[in-house]
């Protein structure tokens, strides 16, 4: 199989982790007989520095023509970078939002599970995690507060900022269908998270989700308020299988879910449209503090590449080979700094990538 992959190294640790993921894909291609072609484009702060905008039309068009996109991370230090104090549409993050919207990537899948090897890094008490948890957050990605009208004005002499949260039934239905389809392949439980005790958009969310549930009688649907969900995630994470939620709640809950796995450096994500096309990226950010020091954890990006193989290219065996290689490296005791504990072997970003590559077998 020949696959054309557009890569977006981005900012901060982005370039180093994307490099490792590409090398892992190349090795997987060698072992299984596929050709992966990589074409890099600029997005985020690096694009601002070069072109004055976080994503050029040309870069977006290039991404549209690819079979899939692999992204590192974009952005600098929040509140303290040359890209922060500028108009919202000129910030690095605006590139991310523009590519999500431009490619129609409405479904963001963020798996969060606990590797037994990292159980000690989980901040929860052992009795709360038992033999581990395995959930996936299905986050709506092209609607809600992120894309509603926003402006800042002076109203009656007082500076006033407005962000609007809008969802229509179509947007809710398609993401709900995605969540139920995923649940059918898992433990058949969907927890739909909203704030229906306050928000109209959440009431519509509940109504549409219940309609969709009728087409999936085998799947159990429960509704949970977002504040309660934040609490349940740290009290009893094992109750969750598929968490379905809107854009902003999903942003927040996915950071929380990833942290209880021990490190946000381990978690992959996929952003999909209605077709097989997808953008794959680690759930973590650009970590500008540790950029360029060869200490970042490339595993989340490597696992995102594995998600690409199965979701966009139906290469499930190949994806499994990557996941097995990651598992092996952890079992053998190799750790990057973020997941390091005494008694293990500390390795850098490049070495971690190499160890994983060397363990990819048919
Ligand atoms: C994420 C990030 C982005 C988001 C930021 C960088 C705009 O936090 O992918 O979770 O909020 O969606
Ligand atoms: Mg986030």
Automatic annotation (TrEMBL):
Keyword Transmembrane appears in the UniProt entry: no
UniProt subcellular location: Cytoplasm
GO cellular component: cytosol
Pfam family, one: Iso_dh
GO molecular function, one term: magnesium ion binding
Any one biological process term the GO annotation gives: L-leucine biosynthetic process
Enzyme Commission number: 1.1.1.85
Sequence positions that bind Mg(2+): 227, 251, 255
Annotated pathway: Amino-acid biosynthesis; L-leucine biosynthesis; L-leucine from 3-methyl-2-oxobutanoate: step 3/4
Swiss-Prot/TrEMBL catalytic activity: (2R,3S)-3-isopropylmalate + NAD(+) = 4-methyl-2-oxopentanoate + CO2 + NADH
Chain ranges of the Isopropylmalate dehydrogenase-like domain: 4-356
Signal peptide (from-to): none
Cofactor notes: Binds 1 Mg(2+) or Mn(2+) ion per subunit.
Gene3D superfamilies in the cross-refs: Isopropylmalate Dehydrogenase
EC class (word): oxidoreductase
Binding site for substrate: 100, 110, 139, 227
Site annotation Important for catalysis: residues: 146, 195
Residues annotated for NAD(+) binding in this entry: 285-297
Function, in words: Catalyzes the oxidation of 3-carboxy-2-hydroxy-4-methylpentanoate (3-isopropylmalate) to 3-carboxy-4-methyl-2-oxopentanoate. The product decarboxylates to 4-methyl-2 oxopentanoate.
Subunit relationships: Homodimer.
Family affiliation: Belongs to the isocitrate and isopropylmalate dehydrogenases family. LeuB type 1 subfamily.
Record's protein name: 3-isopropylmalate dehydrogenase
Protein species of origin: [Clostridium] aminophilum
């Amino acid at each position: 199989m020949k696959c054309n992959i557009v890569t977006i190294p981005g900012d901060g640790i982005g370039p180093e982790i994307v490099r490792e993921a590409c090398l892992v894909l190349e090795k997987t291609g060698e072992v299984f007989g596929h050709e992966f072609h990589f074409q890099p484009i600029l997005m985020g702060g690096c694009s601002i520095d070069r072109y004055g905008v976080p994503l050029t039309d040309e870069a977006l068009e290039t991404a549209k023509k690819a079979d899939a996109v692999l992204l590192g991370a974009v952005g600098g230090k929040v509140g303290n970078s040359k890209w922060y104090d500028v108009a919202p549409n000129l910030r690095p993050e605006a590139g991310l939002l523009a590519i999500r919207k431009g490619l129609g990537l409405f479904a963001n899948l963020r798996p969060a599970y606990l590797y037994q090897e990292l159980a000690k890094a989980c901040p929860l008490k052992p009795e709360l995690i038992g033999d581990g948890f395995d959930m996936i957050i299905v986050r709506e990605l092209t609607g809600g507060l992120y894309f509603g009208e926003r402006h800042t004005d002076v109203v009656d002499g007082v500076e006033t900022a407005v962000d609007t949260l809008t969802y229509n039934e179509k947007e809710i239905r398609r993401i709900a269908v995605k969540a139920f389809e995923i649940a059918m392949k898992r433990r058949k439980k969907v927890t739909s998270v909203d704030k229906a005790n306050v928000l109209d958009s959440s009431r519509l969310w509940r109504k549409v989700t219940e309609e969709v549930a009728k087409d999936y009688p085998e799947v159990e649907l429960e509704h949970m308020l977002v504040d309660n969900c934040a609490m349940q995630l740290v009290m009893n994470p094992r109750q969750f299988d598929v968490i379905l939620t809107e854009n902003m709640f999903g942003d927040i809950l996915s950071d929380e879910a990833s942290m209880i796995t021990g490190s946000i450096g381990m978690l992959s994500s996929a952003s999909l449209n209605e077709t097989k096309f997808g953008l794959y990226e680690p759930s973590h950010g650009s970590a500008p503090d540790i950029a360029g020091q060869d200490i970042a954890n490339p595993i989340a990006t490597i696992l995102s590449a594995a998600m690409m193989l199965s979701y966009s290219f139906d290469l499930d065996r190949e994806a499994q080979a990557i996941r097995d290689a990651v598992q092996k490296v952890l079992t053998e005791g190799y750790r990057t700094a973020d997941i390091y504990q005494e008694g293990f072997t500390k390795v850098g970003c490049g070495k971690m990538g190499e160890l994983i590559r060397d363990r990819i077998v048919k």
